[in-house]
Amino acid sequence: MPSSRRLTDQERRQIALQRAKGVPVRELAVRFSVSQKTIYNALNHGRATRSANDSRTCVLTMRVSDRDLRGFDAALSRRGIAHRSDAMRRLMLAADDLLRPDEMMTEELRAMSAALNRVGNNVNQVARRLNEAKLKGERLPYTAASHAEIRGLAGLVFDMADQVQELFRARRRALDLEVTEALRGLATNAGRDCSV
Asked: Has residue 160 been placed in a domain?
């Protein structure tokens, strides 16, 4: 007597393919070490997953760490969402909006990159003048004005770093709003399902 065990999604697909090719149920039961009833159940399950437009639904399986899953559950819990699968479905439907590049941020970062390149060029020129003077044995042309220029360049770099942080925070807020919109209406007090 075959042992009673659960078939994996991949095994169910293989059973459906083999049965479609005419392999007898008895042979499939032996091949997969399950009962004939389990084979029939797997075949019926495959038929039941047809949606209204007669296309097959897909079952997604993914592996995540316990830490990542706890983080996802916590994020859903903060939004009052009980079912992972519903949340994943909504996020997939909103993926086009969520994963779209932020054009404004891209332009701002491009401008900052150009400004940072100018700062780098200025620092290189100062370093070149200092190295040339050193190689010629001359007194280093590093004056109070040079020091003020370097301090100004450093200040510009720190300002740019602050601007990048603010862009990051703004983008994160925008994404949070988009995720909230995508998950709108899922908040319930029902029990959490265990499938992803």
From this structure: yes
